[in-house]
Amino acid sequence: MSKRKVSLRELDHNNIGAWPRNYKIGLCVVLGLLIVGLSWWLFVRPKNETLQQLEREEAQLRQEFEDKQGKASNLEPLKLQLAQMEQQLQQMLRQLPSKTEMPDLIVDISQTALATGLAIELFQPGPENLKEFYAEKPIQLRMVGTYHQFGAFVSGVASLPRVVILTMHDIGLQPKNRQEGIRSNGPLELAGTVRTYRYLDEDEVAAMQAEAEATGGGQ
Questions:
Q1: What angle do CA 51, 52, 54 make, to 5 degrees?
Q2: What is the pTM of this model?
Q3: 2 pLDDT band (50/70/90 cuts)?
Q4: Which of 123-127, 166-170, 210-214 has the highest mean pLDDT?
Q5: DSSP states of the chain as a string?
Q6: How many CA atoms lie within 13 A of 59 on its CB side?
Q7: What span, in angstroms and rounded, lies between the C-alpha atoms of 58 and 64?
Q8: pLDDT at 16
């Protein structure tokens, strides 16, 4: 005679040991799944999030490492290129007038203006301004002449033995007689400040560096 199948409602929850074997197995499976789920939620999931964060940080650090490695591999060529650029800069600076040549150069500029027929009403060099590796000397001037005479003056300055750089600052060019307006051969007045430049010798550069170090150390 076969045993009667017991339903879930008939199970005695206070006497689990008396349950049929298949219900015991089912209960064990459910409890096992519940334990695994809780274990994953409480312990594995936070670790998994930490692992993902570490993987992202690893990818970021790897990218930074590759970038720095690429820069490091190009460091020596960049240093060589910088040294070449500094050498070219020094060569260009050496084409500028030196400290001893500057007074003669100022005279040459004024003589060039006179030679082209310009009337010099003001030609007043000012004190030098020392920069990092060069010095600039402002010259206040006021000259009167025609358009072609000013063109000849600029051409004459460019043909001087030393490289002469003249930069214009607050320069105005207008008719000498403002009532007559601009005429083809009418006199023009150029007034303002130009600056010419020379290179600093090694002693001057060393003195500037020593002064900067002393000033910085005193702060």
A1: 65
A2: 0.54
A3: very low
A4: 123-127
A5: -PPPPPPGGG--TT-GGGS-HHHHHHHHHHHHHHHHHHHIIIIIHHHHHHHHHHHHHHHHHHHHHHHHHHHHHTHHHHHHHHHHHHHHHHHHHHTS--TTTHHHHHHHHHHHHHHTT-EEEEEEE---EE-SSEEEEEEEEEEEE-HHHHHHHHHHHHTSSS----EEEEEEEEESSTTT---TT--EEEEEEEEEEEE--HHHHHHHHHHHHHHHHH-
A6: 5
A7: 10
A8: 65
C-alpha 55/C-alpha 68 separation (Å) is 20
Q: From CA 164, how far away is CA 182, in angstroms rounded?
A: 30
| Identity of residue 131 | K
pLDDT tens-digit map of 35-80: 887 777 777 777 777 777 888 888 888 888 888 877 777 778 888 8
